[in-house]
Design brief:
This protein has about 240 residues and is α+β, with helices and mostly antiparallel strands. Helices cover about 60% and strands about 5% of the residues. The protein contains 10 helices and 6 strands. The radius of gyration is 22 Å and the shape is elongated.
Length: about 240
């Protein structure tokens, strides 16, 4: 039996038992149905739920049965009314890999195993950087994209924190992670703190203080707020 790998982020790729099945899926709706079932493969999906995921107009449930019949010619589905995608043992799906990588990285950092957090954190980051089903638009797709954005932000934080702890050449990775965080979520102070800590580890305390000052001004001018107590504590440490 060949490997089963499904990429829903970035370029859509579906390899089941070593066989590429993208062209065997019944058109755009077939690819979307497959993607929805793959993203929810841990449970049975109801007919109504699948109809809502695929069509926006009313009176459309009669389209589902012929679509599922064609889909069964390409992949195995369990169930007749409500269905579940059946994949071989060891199947790899990028969405699952991102969530698992994040979980493993969080566990490693919590245990102080920063070297152990680097690999799974980078896997989560690599997957979450890619767009989920690019070119498609639906509420469930938007929800998956928001989830991936959360995974990306958290994985950047974890990888950056781990790289600061490891030090050496990994400080470059930490700085890239911090700057990506600031660009993506400029009001999350964690990215600014990470950049300050990275610069401090390099001996660039003055630059770290400039990062704090830029954050302080942005929060004051745009939100009328001040940095959090943890960010201020880091600032005091840098001054000391």
């Amino acid at each position: 039996m060949g490997e089963t790998r499904i990429h829903l982020c970035g370029r859509f790729v579906a390899r089941v038992d070593g066989r590429r099945i993208e062209e065997a899926l019944p058109g755009r709706q077939g690819r979307l149905a497959f993607a929805y079932l793959a993203a929810n493969r841990g449970r049975t999906v109801t007919r109504d739920e699948l109809v809502d995921a695929l069509w926006s107009e009313a009176a459309r449930s009669d389209r589902l049965s012929p679509l599922l019949s064609k889909l069964r010619q390409a992949v195995q589905l369990d169930g007749r009314g409500d269905v579940r995608l059946a994949l071989p043992d060891g199947a790899w799906i990028d969405l699952e890999a991102a969530a698992e990588g994040l979980h493993r990285a969080e566990s490693a950092v919590a245990q102080g195993d920063f070297a152990g957090a680097w690999g799974p954190g980078r896997v989560a980051q690599h997957v979450a950087t890619r767009a989920f089903l690019p070119g498609e638009d639906a509420p469930w797709i938007d929800a998956q994209r928001r989830r991936l954005e959360e995974i990306l932000v958290r994985s950047l934080e974890l990888v950056g924190r781990a790289c600061v702890a490891i030090g050496g050449g990994e400080l470059d990775t930490a700085e890239r992670a911090a700057r990506q965080l600031i660009e993506r979520v400029p009001y999350h102070e964690s990215g600014h703190r990470l950049l300050m800590e990275t610069l401090e580890a390099r001996g660039n305390t003055a630059e770290a203080l400039l990062v704090y000052e830029a954050l302080r001004r942005r929060l004051r001018d745009e939100l009328g707020a001040a940095p959090s107590s943890s960010t201020q504590a880091l600032h005091r440490r840098l001054l000391g």
